[in-house]
From TrEMBL:
Region (Disordered): 169-189
Domain of life: Bacteria
UniProt-listed Gene3D superfamilies: DD-peptidase/beta-lactamase superfamily
Chain intervals with Polar residues compositional bias: 179-189
Origin organism lineage: Bacteria, Bacillati, Actinomycetota, Actinomycetes, Pseudonocardiales
Protein name according to UniProt: Beta-lactamase family protein
Domain Beta-lactamase-related: 5-161
Pfam families: Beta-lactamase
Length: 189
């Protein structure tokens, strides 16, 4: 057994950790292990390819992916969202940049509008969350929400901004399969 495996399995035994651990070094998978249950109700075990609903925990990964693409010269903080989105998400204004999206200063509308008066038990998404498994899958959720304020005016926490940055950042439909997006995504995950 590798030292990494020994340490991980010791922590799993001590804490009851459930999830997936992967350690890459020099482009090689040194260790990968899946532990516990992905679905406790149905007794479904985690696998190395299990997708986890970690919600806002992905915002840092989104930023890392976008900054990686900036580092490669494929994108800039001043890149206009419209330049990448094309006809998708037409209510995102021409002035909105990647920086606005990442910094929650874009002013774009959001599917999780906390000012809309929805009860916590309301189902506000037009599609099941289980269908949100790709950047393209989010288009139906992100579309149709008018801007709340002009880009750069103020801070406004928006999930849609991060999702749009992910589209802009190189893992959306127009970028999937391109070398830059693949390497950036692999480095960020």
């Amino acid at each position: 057994m590798s030292v990494v495996r020994d340490v991980v399995e010791s922590v799993v035994a001590e804490t009851g950790f459930t999830g997936v651990v992967r350690v890459d070094r020099a482009g090689e998978v040194e260790f990968a292990g899946a532990y516990g249950l992905a679905d406790r109700r149905h007794g479904i075990a985690n696998r190395l390819d299990t997708r986890f609903a970690i919600a806002s925990g992905t915002k840092g990964l989104t930023a890392l992916t976008v900054v990686s693409l900036i580092e490669q010269g494929l994108l800039g903080l001043d890149t206009r969202a419209r330049a990448v989105l094309g006809d998708d998400l037409p209510l995102i204004g021409a002035e909105v940049t990647v920086e606005h999206l990442l910094a929650h200063r874009s002013g774009i509308g959001d599917y999780t509008d906390e000012d809309a008066g929805h009860a916590i038990t309301d189902h506000v998404l037009p599609v099941s969350v289980h269908r949100l498994d790709s950047a393209e899958g989010y288009l139906a959720v992100l579309d149709g929400h008018p801007a709340k304020f002009p880009a750069g005016e103020r801070f406004g926490y928006r999930n849609a901004g991060q999702c749009s940055a992910l589209q802009d950042g190189g893992v959306g439909p127009r970028w999937e399969g391109r070398q830059g997006s693949t390497s950036a995504l692999n480095r960020s995950c």
